[in-house]
Amino acid sequence: MMGRAPLLRNGNFRPENLGPNALALIGNLCFTAFVVCVLVFTILAATYQPEDPLFQPSDKITTFLTSTSNATFKSDNTVVKTGEDFLAPNQTEISTFINITDVPDETVAVVDAVATAEADGTTENSDASSSCQGDVDKPIDCRGPEVFHMMMRTAIEKFKDIHFYRFGKPVRGSDDHTCDMAWRFRPKEGKTAALYKDYRRFVISRSENCTLSVESIGEYHTGKNARKRRKKKEPVFEKAQVSNTQTMPVIGETVNDALPVIESESSFEHGKYLMYSGGGDRCKSMNHYLWSFLCALGEAQYLNRTFVMDMKLCLSSIYTESDHDEEGKDFRFYFDFEHLKESASVVDEPQFWTDWNKWQKKDKLGLYLVEDFRITPMKLKDVPDTLIMRRFGEVEPDNYWYRVCEGDAESVIQRPWHLLWKSKRLMDIVSSIAARLNWDYDAIHIVRGEKAKNKELWPNLDRDTSPDAILSTLKDKVDEGRNLYIATDERDKSFFNPVKDKYTTHFLVEYNDLWDENSEWYAETSNLNNGAAVEFDGYMRISVDTEVFLRGKKQLETFNDLTSDCRDGLNTCSTSTSS
User: Fold this and answer.
1) Which residues on neighbouring strands pair with residue 183, listed in sequence order?
2) What would the pLDDT profile of 76-112 be if each residue is shown by its tens digit?
3) What does the pLDDT read at residue 344?
């Protein structure tokens, strides 16, 4: 007994117990490994965020924006996503639309009164009849409740593909027998988080028994007297809205995008400002521009400073008819500056320099110059000077604004996408086109152009977007005879003639009256441009074409529904987004 090895003195290590002990040990190790794996998986699942092309890490965006490869990548001239594209419609808010049963039907009461009088044989002496004598041709009281309710009911009955959310009080139209009324609405099958405003002219008649009826309703935006923004709170007809709802764009309202001004010397003196100057971002793609612009705006918000903003853009040649870069484009041509100035602190650069030159020496205002993008926003947090100016050099890509938001700053600076919406003027053109189609159409997006000619990168695209191939795809997805909006870069619209035999086709070019010299868009953009005419350029066309497509009830996309080719060329489908 005394000579037994120490390890064998414990009964657990007797020879006959070694097998069961080994199995138990292996089982415990396996269970431990399983618990660790579950824990790791849980952490990853909780923290993982899927990639979004607009929210990728800085190094991936840098690679994307500075790529010079011509093998599998072509410059992206598609429309960029903006803040409203990331808004999801508030289901509670959009469900509170006005039903026809919510509107009193006073016309029925009048007709019933007359019918009762006729049945009693008292028509000649009845109040319902005698009160109308001599009143048939009197002016229509547009603000009377009977007229208001009748106009609402008529609109709801006529426009069956939209939901109404608010009716404004009618006002007098062009004469004594017309009334203009505005309303907010959205398409019943709308996917975007937006409301729309329309205002139309109603022709109203009065019969011999004083019954009112709507003879006709004008086209989109014909009721101009009802368009003006209310200066004071006036009564409207709407259902109770839930509070604290997410703000959505309202397309069709009067746009107020006048440049902000600094109210006084005292306001300027006590303000803090951030400016970006120079750099290699000009005349790049709109993707590039926004990635840099929102970096700068994000830094200004982080530093709690007003961003001094250059309102003039350079439009890249990939969007222009001339194939040359075009300077002097106003930010307000493409984006909603009204929403930006109401949601963030920004000031126009020329206005800023005017005030700076007026008051800088007098008030001893300081300027802090930064010429290295590697100086992070965190290091500028406590700078006391009135103006921080980041000045960028001549060497690309180190002179790109978005470099400021890379590295350590990436986790600190949040690009404020929610502040940037598309131009309401352009979106009103989109709404006008959809309204002319009664918001009841299907849409197909067909990419051809240079890509269809490049068999190396897109070997099947030309064949897959031929008229026969398009008809084959449409056959099982869109009913014959439907309104079909075709968004396309194909210049020769006769190419689609075979499709016209089966569908009522529509193209952007058919609606050029919405931006010609007689249009509201033309007048308003010229006013922004100091009276000079503004071209409806390539980016605007792409933007409107794409947005009309996105409002179709059914949507077929080139690189999802028509072809197996990748949007950005051969072997790029894993990183491409849809057309």
Assistant:
1) 167, 198
2) 456 778 888 887 776 666 778 999 999 998 655 444 4
3) 95
Reduced to 3 states, what is the DSSP secondary structure of residue 558? helix
Q: Which tens digit of pLDDT belongs to each residue from 299-341?
A: 999 999 999 999 999 999 999 999 999 999 999 999 999 999 9
Contacts of 403 (CB under 8 A, 6+ apart): 62, 373, 397
d(CA 17, CA 544): 80
Whole-angstrom distance, CA of residue 5 vs CA of residue 25: 22
Position of tokens 């489908």? 573
Instruction: Give the residue among 234, 110, 232, 135 at the shortest CA–CA distance from 181.
Output: 234
Place of tokens 């965020």: 49
Q: Which residues contact 147 (CB under 8 A, 6 or more apart)?
A: 140, 141, 170, 179, 204, 212
* CA torsion, ordered 86, 91, 96, 101, to nearest 10 deg: 120
Residue 48 amino acid letter? Y
Residues of the chain above pLDDT 70, percent: 78
Copy the structure tokens of residue 464.
């897959």
Q: Largest Cα–Cα distance in the chain? A: 134
Q: Are 330 and 529 in contact (CB under 8 A)?
A: yes
203-242 pLDDT, tens digit per residue, is 999 988 888 999 999 999 999 999 876 454 555 666 555 4
Tell me the pairing of strands 306-309 and 273-278: parallel
DSSP 182: E
CB atoms closer than 10 angstroms to residue 17: 13
In this structure, is the dihedral angle defined by the CA atoms of residues 85, 343, 288 and 514, taken in order, positive or negative?
A: positive
- Mark 31-59 as b/e (b = at least 16 C-beta within 10 Å): eeeeeeeeeeeeeeeeeeeeeeebeeebe
